[in-house]
UniProtKB/TrEMBL annotation:
Similarity section: Belongs to the ComB family.
Protein name: Probable 2-phosphosulfolactate phosphatase
Catalytic activity field: (2R)-O-phospho-3-sulfolactate + H2O = (2R)-3-sulfolactate + phosphate
Cofactor: Mg(2+)
Gene3D superfamilies assigned: ComB-like
Keyword Nucleotide-binding: no
UniProt KW keywords: Hydrolase, Magnesium
InterPro entries associated with the record: ComB-like, ComB-like_sf
Species this protein is from: Candidatus Reconcilbacillus cellulovorans
GO molecular function, a single term: magnesium ion binding
Amino acid sequence: MRIDVLRFAEGAKQARGLVVVIDVFRAFSTACYVMAGGAERIVPVGDLELAYRLKRLLPDAVLIGERGGVRQPGFDYGNSPTRVRDVRFDGKTVIQTTSAGTQGIANARDADEIVTGSFVNAGAVVRYIMSRRPERVSLVCMGFAAREPAEEDELCAEYIRNALLGRPNDFAAIVARLRGESGTNRFLDAEGDPDADNPRSDFDLCLALDRFPFVLRAEPWTPPEGVGTASDWGGSKAEPGGADGSSGTFAEKRLVCLRKQVVA
């Protein structure tokens, strides 16, 4: 099994085989908590305008995510596991757009298949990969805003790679390393503030190792009529802070949804 470690949106474009798009703080940790809350699917999109348009066409859908770590106007929730962990999303479609994680999915156009990666379901990701026995695995670290390295994503990729190769991992050391460096610096909002975008509890929730026994696997998804083409919603232009920057019509782009698959 060949295992490549790639980075950012450009790395996602280069990814081949079974692709694991990693965003620990916080997109794909939050996504796992959402799915654990009963959501039917998550539709990850790279473009903010597209997310708004999908919400208008699917008024019963839940819109979550951020730009620059901040929940955007009209969003139901931000990108915080703290804010969604006790919410019931039973049967809901959830539209998610973020500065990093969803950009990776939008750009991984040459993948054979895509799953998300984070510590909260790392064991399930490893078991899933082993069950699929792919010739090639691409671990894509999305980093901060899909353009700067993020230590937590690098460490998660290393953790998954070690597990696939039968090498030991020291998760306690990983937590200590993140707690002492960049990890806690992102979560500065007061814990008691109900509107905080970055509550301190997100740190621990994102590092709850193997809390969930499932992977989030990308499947083709047909959007509702009226979404339009890429030129209509700005899909041919890159957003500041990391966007998919793709071109061509919307019909030429692969829009997917994430569904939960339990891995024994």
